Queue: 2 jobs
Job 1
Amino acid sequence: MKARRSLLGAAVAALVAGGVRALPPAGRRCRVGLLGAESEKVAYADLEHLRRELRALGYVEGPLLAFDVRWAGSDYGRLVALAKDLAASGVDVVVASGSKAGIAAKEATSTVPVVVSNMGDALQAGFAGSLARPGGNVTGFSAMNPEVTAKQLALLREIKPGLARAGLLMNPANPNFALTVDALRRAGDAIGVRVATFEAASAAAIAPAIRAVAAAGIDALVVQSETLFSAQAAAIAKLAVANRIAVAGLTSYADAGALVGYSAAIGERWRHVAGYVDRILHGAAPSSLPIAQPSRVELVLNLVTARAIGVTIPQSLEQRADRVIR
């Protein structure tokens, strides 16, 4: 079994301390809200991850646990109202999927505990002034996305040694977009790759953005970690293959048909989230729960896509991969 690498050699495992409890709090039914920025389909996919991890902690939906799900359908202007609705509905804790949902939940309530499933950069996005003691009513999991995005560019450069220009597909509405652009451009400067940005703030804008990448003569593209793009991973991969563009993104992108996937394991993220929900339901304050960071990341390579776009994955890189899609 291939060992997974520590995230950029410096990520710290989250402190989900306090022990695993066999049962939920006795004598009452727990209610957990889930707030998603994207479609119903994406929200319920996130719910399945959360449901599975809570079940492992002893929470059985029905007699002991109920979920209340809201999603914005990519209409981000609705998120605060949806978050206020959830907070007013009497849920014990709100789980927010992604930075945009998390910021909306933070704005909507200062009393209902909020656990954000993927904060990007927690400090830059304003979720906390300290990772160790976030304060307030918000905690969660930070996937260190700007740093991961920089590593995705380095992987594309390793696959394409002559790479001189690369693109970044980004959503300007993402709270971490400026930090991501800065991290990627600094990473590009260090390896001699100029980075051009291509914006898409809606699902409809993704295809024109990728066609613009191809029209600019760019054949390598990093996709920002962003809920809008994650929901369209298969469409992005298909467009990229049609235009012979090597794409690097989250591990789910490689599974959907992109060339490279590199990110924190989704299972680790949801285990942390469920663990924090459990601790909050047992009386822990979010202010005392450190914002978790991934202890490891996964590298997934798609050789089917490599053949389709005419690139060769170096054997040394293939040997380092956690998974290879053949």
Job 2
Amino acid sequence: MTEPEEVSLDHFLGGGTRRGRTHLLRIALLAAAVVALVLLVVRFLGGTDSPFYTALVEQGSITPLLSERGTVHGSGEVALAAALDGTVTAEGVPAGGKVEKGQILATIDAEPLRSTLAADRALVAAAEADLEAARGARDEATSKLARFEDVWRRSGHRVPAINELEAARTAAERAAREVAAAEARVSAARNSLKADSETLAAAVVRAPFAGYVVERNIRTGQRVRVGMKLFTLAASDETLEIEIPLARAGSAGLDAGTVAQVRIDAMPDDVQQATLARVLADSADAPGSRRAVFTLEKPTEAIRPGMAATVEVALPERKNVLLVPDAALTFEPGSTGGAHVDGNSTGRNQPRIYLVSGDGEPRRVYVSAGAGDGKRTEVFANDLKPGAEVIVGWRNPPEKH
């Protein structure tokens, strides 16, 4: 009877209640810790409540990578232009293909020229008929004048009358002039027929020599005009070059002898080396532009003129510069309409980035973009500091209305 009495006494004194409350408190604390841990994990995995992905503006070094597209060129290049207006009804070897001398590259439908040729032939026939008639009239006038002069001599200049003799002489001279004019018309008509025939023959575009198609500027069904460039052919693949534009910032560090890596589209795993041969300026197609010409050092036999390629050049290292991810230069808030602007707006084409302002809204900052390495780009802007939070993308894109 003693133990039950002790339990009953503890219960009476409140000892059991205190232990129960302690147990509940421990459970509550454990639950709170679990909730806090869950919230921490969710915050870690889900990020902040901001709708943007961001990165920090860095200050550091970068080795710029110039990457431009180009086409492999060969030696002895010749451009083939359209000799007549018409529609391309067939096309031959594509760019990069090998051709033989006389091989058909394209055919131009020139139906209007065929009608012109028919008219030319009719003019030649008419001119020849006129010439034949003029010669007959000349022969008759010449014979009549010869008879008159013979009688004039034998009659002692008594007959025919002097005016008749002069008229015969004038008629003979006029007939001779008409023959000369008819001969000129025949010559002109024949020359026109010959020129139009040669032009029609040029409707079939043929390779003037054995070589490679560097460029093909036409397609089936395309309308072409006289003088339009159709193809560029290279006679040889002994020396292969690649020409690329130098429009991007940071290309000023290129000097003769700079080594580049070349990746041919048709064989992307086979990296070639090329050396900068020269820099060209003031292209007729783009005044003020600059172009770099690289010579392939040891091209494989599979590389031919006309193949598309990418040229990659590591430029001199840039130190202690401000850097942002490339994605920051392509991000646009879109229809949010809440972007603040810093700096002077100099046009929609100027590069820009967006920083996160104090109220969480994107703040637009116009920058000057320098060189990049394919991941980061050097930027210049007033009041832009390292550590600034720059937007690189949407975490929660706004709904489109």
